[in-house]
């Protein structure tokens, strides 16, 4: 279900020859998200790179098992970050100068997960944190088939632009001709984000709110005025 909110601004522009009418209209479609996108992972540290990597791999395997148990398919999971980097701290040498000292290695493995089960995203996030996810980047909500909703907004915007052009035609005593040009601007609101500090959250399902996502289109349409020659004669 979605609702269409229509706003309209129109500008009547007549050239010196009264050749055209330029109107603008806009349409906005608001829909509830149908997909949750969770970005999280595991960060491990150790003096030895191999030890940090082993610990990280074990934790990630546990996370993948949890995702499988919760019916998250492999096609809905992808690794978006993996790296092993040295960790340095600043220390003073014998002369009192600061220098970098290698103290260990940091392994980061991050995955992005998509789920259509919005009602249980909080529960899933809580399970993943309990099972070792200690780096929760974000939880966002989005809409699939976005082009369809943009087309709905386009249709509404064009319909309202034509309606306003006809209003001017009726008031001005002229007939609308063909459409000469159409230009558009589109805007898709960003999905709502949950600033995830889930690793520090108390036990229990993490509260999340999907909200709504809006798709807006504004158009500028130029209509030809029929009977320009007659209008010119009247003007003389």
- Overall shape: it is elongated
Strand order of the largest sheet: 4-5-3-6-8
Q: What is the CATH superfamily of the largest domain?
A: Protein of unknown function (DUF541), domain 2
Ends: how far apart? 55 Å
- The total number of structural domains is 2
The profile of the biggest β sheet is: 5 strands, antiparallel
The count of DSSP E runs of length 2 or more, i.e. the number of strands, is 9
Mean pLDDT: 84
Quickly count the helices.
4
What percent strand? 35-45%
CATH class descriptor name of the largest domain: Alpha Beta
Supply the CATH architecture of the largest domain.
Answer: 2-Layer Sandwich
Which runs of at least 5 residues are low in confidence (pLDDT < 50)?
4-17, 194-203
- What is the H/E order? EEEHEEHEHEEEH
- Report the structural category: alpha+beta
The level of helicity is 25-40%
Could you name the CATH topology of the largest domain? Alpha-Beta Plaits
Could you characterize the architecture of this molecule?
The protein is of the alpha+beta class. The protein folds into two domains: 2-32 and 145-190 and 211-235, 2-Layer Sandwich (Translation Initiation Factor IF3), CATH 3.30.110; 35-142, Protein of unknown function (DUF541), domain 2 (Alpha-Beta Plaits, 2-Layer Sandwich), CATH 3.30.70.2970. It is built from four helices and nine strands, in the order βββαββαβαβββα. The protein has a five-stranded antiparallel beta sheet. A four-stranded antiparallel beta sheet has the order 1-2-9-7, covered by helices on one side. Mean pLDDT is 84; it is low at 4-17 and 194-203.
